[in-house]
Structure formats: structure tokens, C-alpha cells
């Protein structure tokens, strides 16, 4: 059953794809918005810190400005921490949502393992052949050796 | 009128004392200004006088007088000025203090006080500068405090960044080989490795669901330094163990040193963080990743082996009677099968712990309950096979197979089930549950071929001119050897210019074992010995027959002896001797019409020589020629026991006999 507002001519296959694409675009916008907010908070806090650092004449304003400096410093650090969390979330998204890269990586690993299995099989065949050859040589050496002939003399 | 000295003259003229008309209204009435009183007239007159010039003059005079006074008394008052300023300040202070005291007394008297005006005294320049300095110092202190705070925060954030870089970098690298899942456990969020293999080995019955083992989900943790760590409960990894009942050797895979070092107790991390250094290098991170990868690989292998054991159990239970699989013992982690007629194979899941902690099975062949992970009761108890009377505590005097061969069987078992998994995943078809039967037959074949090989080696060691040649078949249920009888170099005989040569240099007897069946294939007799044309193809009959293990030595010795007889027969024909042959006897016709017989005697139980020879001249009697190898020389003077002879000796004896043939034999 199609949702109301779903694209009409696209069929059942394009509906989920379009909604997924829209959700991805919205998520991207939200992340960019968070990023902008954090950066702007950091810049604003720093600029206010610098402006408040100016020494004014009325001494009673110093305590007020000191409190303002502390608040802005905390806000700056909080914005930086929020940026770190944003980076963590992006890394998690890359790990769990990068399906294209994951699938590509899985295909590469499958190819690599298939190739390695083939190489191992060939190596085992070669080892088998060499073992058979060595066994034959050893047997011929043994039966033509002095030790074996000496036993039966 | 005023007249100033040397100045201009100014004349003011008063208005005439007459009434001036102010206004006339419309009616025509005249309005005159009100009449002023005398006082008002006097005041207005005074007001008309301009005294500004006089005031200016007086001010200039006062100023000049002041300047004069100041210049006169300047020196005297200079020293008193700072004291005056101080005194002035003290007076102001005293005034302010008196106001405050009045205020306090009024308040003490509970009288209401109305504050009219509060005026802050104007600060002096030095006071303002002092306040400014205090403010600046306070600001600097605050900024320094903020600087320390920022430094601490930056250090913490750098550690956090490096921790996360290590953790997520490790996670991304491990994700290349393992499935990572995000798991939300309550409020916190975590990651897990999912080792569950969705390719089920449930066989043809797809309705049987394979439950994921609790070991298939590994929780990922992070230590204090950001290194990735995994939580592994203790005694959880199990490995497949294959052994023959009565063998002490075990094929159980023990944890290697690297994983043993990092083995964790329940709840603790596996990766051991560096105890001293705080800065971790890339090598440490790579080492941790490698260790984690190997541990995950061990767990994955353990899960696969558990799955294989489950599959084997299911096949054994379902196809026990139909495919010749004989189950004699079955428990949760243990399965005992009868292989062949006198061997029992035990398949079990054991903990992959170091040797000291692993309790092996008892030497009497019974299954030790302590060696299994769970002590649950079994459906069938293991059955002990009949023991040897001489050694009642031990069923078998020697192991059925060496430990390396048993290990190879274990690897083969895992390999065939792995191939089954792959074929089912890729192509969808399966072997329909015949893998266990095939494996049992392979094991039986391996045990049987081992016995055959030992018999063949024993025989070859006692017959000098026979060599054992192996022919690897690379098939699990087929083995092949050849017994090669190398004859001495072909003899060349010239007869009328033609060179007669025997082209045979060896006789081959092939021993092939398929499952439990022995088949012998070898050359036994030649119809045409040599070709005088020189390019003869020598048709010979090749016999193929099957036998039992007990009959194998005798048959092989018969075969070899007959091949020797055949070779001697061929050589005798080459030199022109009249000979005839039996299976183990070569009859040579002598000049006098007698017949000399060279006989072969085979005895598989003879420790020194399996094939011995005797020469016999059958005595002319009425009875049929009857002689036996067991008669001594004294019993039968016509029989000469030669013992074990080499082929060269036999050939030279034959050539010696040729002199007695007298039929044109050429030696």
C-alpha cells in the first residue's frame, strides 16, 4: 500500500528509495546544522571572552565580567565536546551505514579469499606431487642402498 | 548725562512728561497707560541707568589687587599648600563622618531618616589608577585561571580524540573481516561482533532451525587507553576432538600462547593495556588488533566445530542403521562409533584449555565425565569392547593409527563438512546426509590400509629382490601399492647372427585397496618369451583377483615366486633349454631324459626368508613323484634344499643346469 504523497509513476521500487534519499538528505542537513551551531558557539564564546577581557573602569563590573568569562569558557568547551561527539557519530555512521563501501569491501574480501583458497589448493596439489616424487625417490634410494642390501646379504 | 574722561560722550534724553496714548478702540475711546506712582517712577529711572561699565571696572581693579597680593605672598604660601589640601580632605572626611554618625545615631534612636542625596566623592587620580590596576590584576588572574582550564580541557580532549581514533580505527580494521553490530543496551550504546554463520548445516530438513550459540555474539569493550577489547567468558571455547578408543594421544587443539596470554576471566578485558607508558604506538594498536583477530578466529573455528559435531550427531541419530553407521555411545558432547570390526572412534567436544587444565580420557578406554563441559546424563553409555586377556586394562596393544593420521582424519572431517556448507550456500544442493557414512568408511579404509601396508612392508623386508612402491591416489577410500620384482639385466644370446634378448626387467604386482576390499593385479605367466625379430610385443596374462587380509601374504608370495619361475623359464628358453613350468616349479629336461625341478617354497611366517628354493630330481618309482619340502636331505636324497637365493644365484644355477641339458643349449 503506497503512502499518500508517494511518487505516482515510479512504482514500488522507487518509493522507498526516494524516502530513504530524503531521510539521508535531512540527516545530512541536521548534521551540518549541528556542526554550524557548534562552530558558531565556539567562535562567539571566544569573541565574547576577548571582548570581556578588556579592563573597564567601574570595579563593580569585574565580578560580573568574571562570571561571564567563566560561562563563555564553559560554553566553548562544551561546544568542543559536542564537536567531538559529532565526529564519533560520523565515524559510527561510516562504520554502520556505509553500505556501498561495506559491500564493496565484502566483495573484495570474497575475491581475495577465493583466490587464496585457489592458491592453497594449487599449493596442496604441488605439495602432494612433490611428496609423491620424493617418496618415489626415497624408495628407489632405499632399495638401492647398501643398508638394505647389506641386511639381506 | 555722563561725561567720561578722554572718552566719548553719551546723552540720554528722557521722554516728555506727557501722557502718551496707548490705543484707540473702535468706538473712539482713548486708552492711556496707567499712572505710575512715585516709587515706580524712581525705580524705572534707576533701571535705565547702565552700571555694567562700573562693574567691569571694579572687577578689573579687584583682579589687579589680587594678582599683586598673590605675587607678594606666593613664596610664603607654597609650603602650606600640601598641608592645606590634606587639611581640606580631612575636613571633608570629618564632615562625612559626622553625617554618618548622625545617621547611625538616628537609626539607633529608631527615627526615620530620609536620605536626600548621596554624592560619591570624586576619586583622586591615584585612586582611580589604583582601582584600574586592581581591575586589571583581577582580569589577568581570571584569564590565567581560564588559561589553565583551557589547557586541562585541551589535554583531556586530545586524550579523548586519540582514544576514539584508536578505538574506531581498530573497529574499522576489524570490520573488514568480521561483522560489527550496534547494540543498544539500555541507556548506553555498545558494539558487538556477530560470529553467527547463517549458512545452516541442518541438512535436508530445512525446518530445523539452528540456534545461534551464546558465543556467537562477542561484546566489544574499550579500555582506559581506548584500545579495543572483547569480553570473553572463561571456559567457553570448545574444540572437536577425535581419537580412537584406547589411544592416549588426543587431537584436541590447545590454545596457542598468544591467545592464552590474553585469555580473560569473565567480565574482564582481553587486551592488556600497557601498564607504564601512556602514549601507545601504532605497533601496539596493530598488535592488539592482531590479537583480537586471532581470538575471534579461534571462537569462529570453535563455533564451526560445534556445528560440525551437531551435524555428525544428527546424521548418526537419523541414519544409524541405513548407512552402516554403528553408534555405541552418545552423550551431549560425545559420540562413539564402531569403525570396521575392532576399532572404535570417539568424537567429542572439549574445552580448548591448556593441557594442565584438560582432563584426558581414562586409559582403560572409558569416558571420563569430568572431561566434558557439562555433566548431563547421556542417552547411551559408552560400550567397552572386549579386552585382551593378557592386558585386561588395555583393549588395544598398539594404536590403530598414529596421532598424525588421526589429526589428518579430523582435518578431513572438518573439510568435508566445510565443503558441504559451501556447496549448499552456493549451489543449494547437499549430499543428503551421507557425509558421516563416507567419513566412517574413509576411517575404516585408513585403518585397513594401514594394516595392509604393514603386511606388505613386512614381506618386502624379508624378500630382497622385491621393492615396495607407493602410488598415492589422493582419494580417501582408495590406496595403491606396487610390488616390483627387479630381475637382473637381460641376457644377450647370439644365435646365428641374431641377438636374442629378453626385454623384461621387472615384474609388477599391483595391490589396490578400495574401502575394505583388496585386489591384486599382476603378471603371472608369459606365452611368448622373446621375439627373434627384436621388436616383440610380449603378450602376457594379467591376473586380477581379490582376497582377504589373512590370505594376502600367501598370495603375494605366490605371485612373486611364480614371477621368478616365469623369469627363469624365459631365461632358460633364451639359452635353448627345454623347460616347462608350473606355478611354483620349473622343470628342466636333462640329457639323460631326467627332469630336474627347481621348486619355490613360500612361507609367510618365516622370519628370515619368505621364499626358499629346493632342487629335486624325482626318483623313478612306480608311485607318482612325491616329494615334500619338509623332507630332509637324508630322507630324500633326490631333494636338495637350497634356502633363500638371490636372483643372480638362481640365474647362475640355471646356467649351470644348461650344461646338463645337451640340446644345443647355449650358455
Report on this model:
The complex is a heterodimer of chains A (153) and B (667). With 153 residues, chain A is an all-alpha fold. Helix content of chain A is 86%, strand content 0%. Chain A is elongated. In chain B, the strands form 7 sheets. A 5-stranded antiparallel β-sheet of chain B has the order 13-14-17-18-19. Chain B has a 5-stranded antiparallel β-sheet with strand order 20-21-22-23-24, covered by helices on one side. Chain B has a 4-stranded antiparallel β-sheet with strand order 5-6-7-8. In chain B, a hairpin with a 5-residue loop joins strand 3 and strand 4. In chain B, helix 4 runs parallel beside helix 6. In chain B, 25% of the residues are buried. About 14% of the residues of chain B have low confidence. Classes of the chains: A mainly alpha (153), B alpha+beta (667). At the A-B interface, helix 2, helix 3 and helix 4 of A face helix 4 and strand 13 of B.
In short:
The complex is a heterodimer of chains A (153) and B (667). Chain A has 153 residues and is mainly alpha-helical.
Helix content, binned percent of chain A: over 70%
Gyration radius of chain A, rounded: 37 Å
Identify the most extensive interface between protein chains: A-B, 37 and 35 residues
Assess the beta-strand content of chain B as a share of residues: 15-25%
* Net shape of chain A: elongated
Along the chain, the helix and strand elements of chain A come as: HHHH
From the N-terminal CA to the C-terminal CA of chain A, the straight-line distance is: 95 Å
- N- to C-terminal distance of chain B: 198 Å
Amino acid at each position: 500500500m503506497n503512502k499518500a504523497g508517494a511518487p505516482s509513476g515510479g512504482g514500488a521500487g522507487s518509493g522507498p528509495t526516494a524516502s530513504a534519499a530524503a531521510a539521508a538528505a535531512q540527516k545530512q542537513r541536521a548534521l551540518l546544522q549541528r556542526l554550524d551551531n557548534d562552530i558558531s558557539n565556539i567562535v562567539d564564546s571566544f569573541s565574547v571572552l576577548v571582548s570581556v577581557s578588556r579592563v573597564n573602569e567601574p570595579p563593580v563590573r569585574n565580578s560580573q565580567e568574571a562570571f561571564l568569562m567563566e560561562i563563555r569558557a564553559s560554553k566553548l568547551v562544551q561546544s568542543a565536546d559536542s564537536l567531538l561527539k559529532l565526529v564519533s557519530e560520523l565515524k559510527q555512521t561510516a562504520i554502520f551505514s556505509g553500505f556501498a563501501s561495506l559491500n564493496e569491501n565484502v566483495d573484495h574480501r570474497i575475491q581475495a579469499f577465493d583466490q587464496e583458497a585457489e592458491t592453497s589448493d594449487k599449493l596442496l596439489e604441488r605439495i602432494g606431487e612433490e611428496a609423491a616424487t620424493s617418496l618415489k625417490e626415497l624408495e628407489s634410494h632405499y632399495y638401492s642402498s647398501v643398508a638394505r642390501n647389506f641386511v639381506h646379504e | 548725562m555722563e561725561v567720561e574722561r578722554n572718552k566719548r560722550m553719551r546723552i540720554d534724553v528722557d521722554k516728555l512728561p506727557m501722557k502718551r496714548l496707548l490705543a484707540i478702540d473702535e468706538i473712539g475711546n482713548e486708552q492711556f497707560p496707567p499712572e505710575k506712582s512715585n516709587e515706580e517712577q524712581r525705580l524705572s529711572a534707576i533701571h535705565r541707568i547702565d552700571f555694567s561699565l562700573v562693574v567691569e571696572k571694579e572687577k578689573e581693579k579687584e583682579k589687579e589687587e589680587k594678582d599683586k597680593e598673590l605675587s607678594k605672598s606666593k613664596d610664603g604660601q607654597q609650603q602650606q599648600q600640601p598641608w592645606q589640601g590634606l587639611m581640606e580632605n580631612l575636613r571633608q572626611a570629618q564632615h562625612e563622618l559626622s553625617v554618618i554618625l548622625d545617621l547611625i545615631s538616628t537609626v539607633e534612636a529608631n527615627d526615620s531618616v530620609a536620605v536626600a542625596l548621596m554624592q560619591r566623592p570624586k576619586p583622586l587620580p591615584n585612586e582611580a589608577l589604583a582601582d584600574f590596576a586592581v581591575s586589571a590584576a583581577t582580569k589577568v588572574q581570571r584569564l590565567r585561571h581560564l588559561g589553565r582550564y583551557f589547557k586541562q580541557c585541551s589535554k583531556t580532549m586530545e586524550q579523548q580524540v586519540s582514544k576514539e581514533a584508536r578505538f574506531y580505527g581498530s573497529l574499522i580494521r576489524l570490520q573488514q573481516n568480521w561483522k560489527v553490530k550496534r547494540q543498544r543496551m539500555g541507556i548506553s550504546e555498545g558494539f558487538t561482533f556477530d560470529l553467527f554463520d547463517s549458512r545452516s548445516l541442518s541438512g535436508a530438513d530445512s525446518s530445523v532451525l539452528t540456534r545461534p550459540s551464546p558465543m556467537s555474539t562477542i561484546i566489544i569493550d574499550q579500555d582506559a587507553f581506548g584500545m579495543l577489547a572483547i569480553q570473553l567468558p572463561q571456559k567457553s571455547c570448545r574444540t572437536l576432538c577425535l581419537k580412537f578408543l584406547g589411544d592416549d594421544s588426543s587431537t584436541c587443539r590447545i590454545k596457542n600462547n598468544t591467545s592464552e596470554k590474553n585469555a580473560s576471566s569473565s567480565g574482564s578485558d582481553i587486551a592488556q593495556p600497557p601498564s607504564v607508558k601512556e602514549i601507545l604506538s601504532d605497533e601496539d594498536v596493530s598488535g592488539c588488533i592482531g590479537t583480537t583477530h586471532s581470538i575471534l578466529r579461534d571462537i569462529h573455528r570453535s563455533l564451526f566445530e560445534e556445528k560440525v559435531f551437531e551435524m555428525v550427531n544428527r546424521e548418526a541419530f537419523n541414519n544409524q542403521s541405513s548407512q552402516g553407521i554403528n553408534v555405541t555411545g552418545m552423550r551431549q558432547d560425545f559420540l562413539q562409533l564402531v569403525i570396521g570390526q575392532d576399532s572404535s572412534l570417539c568424537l567429542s567436544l572439549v574445552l580448548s584449555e591448556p593441557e594442565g587444565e584438560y582432563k584426558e580420557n581414562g586409559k582403560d578406554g572409558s569416558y571420563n565425565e569430568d572431561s566434558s563441559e557439562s555433566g548431563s546424563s547421556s542417552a547411551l553409555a559408552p560400550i567397552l569392547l572386549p579386552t585382551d586377556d593378557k592386558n585386561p586394562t588395555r583393549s588395544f596393544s598398539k594404536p590403530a593409527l598414529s596421532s598424525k593420521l588421526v589429526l589428518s582424519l579430523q582435518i578431513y572431517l572438518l573439510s568435508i563438512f566445510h565443503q558441504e556448507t559451501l556447496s549448499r550456500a552456493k549451489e543449494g544442493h547437499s549430499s543428503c546426509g551421507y557425509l558421516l557414512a563416507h567419513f566412517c568408511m574413509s576411517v575404516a579404509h585408513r585403518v585397513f590400509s594401514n594394516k595392509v601396508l604393514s603386511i606388505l612392508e613386512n614381506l618386502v623386508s624379508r624378500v630382497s629382490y622385491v621393492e615396495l612402491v607407493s602410488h598415492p591416489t589422493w582419494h580417501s577410500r582408495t590406496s595403491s601399492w606396487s610390488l616390483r620384482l627387479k630381475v637382473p639385466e637381460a641376457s644377450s644370446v647370439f644365435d646365428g647372427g641374431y641377438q636374442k634378448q629378453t626385454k623384461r626387467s621387472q615384474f609388477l604386482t599391483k595391490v589396490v585397496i578400495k574401502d575394505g576390499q583388496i585386489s591384486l593385479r599382476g603378471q603371472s605367466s608369459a606365452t611368448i618369451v622373446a621375439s627373434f625379430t627384436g621388436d616383440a610385443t610380449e603378450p602376457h596374462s594379467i591376473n586380477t583377483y581379490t582376497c582377504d587380509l589373512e590370505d594376502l601374504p600367501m598370495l603375494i608370495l605366490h605371485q612373486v615366486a611364480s614371477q621368478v619361475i616365469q623369469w627363469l623359464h624365459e631365461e632358460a628358453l633364451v639359452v635353448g633349454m627345454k623347460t616347462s613350468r608350473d606355478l611354483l616349479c620349473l622343470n628342466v629336461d636333462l640329457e639323460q631324459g631326467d627332469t630336474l625341478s627347481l621348486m619355490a617354497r613360500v612361507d609367510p611366517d618365516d622370519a628370515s626368508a619368505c621364499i626358499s628354493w629346493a632342487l629335486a630330481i624325482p626318483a623313478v618309482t612306480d608311485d607318482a613323484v612325491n616329494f615334500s619340502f619338509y623332507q630332509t636331505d637324508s630322507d630324500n636324497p633326490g631333494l636338495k634344499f637350497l634356502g633363500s637365493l638371490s636372483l643372480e644365484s638362481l640365474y647362475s644355477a640355471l646356467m649351470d643346469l644348461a650344461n646338463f641339458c645337451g640340446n644345443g643349449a647355449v650358455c
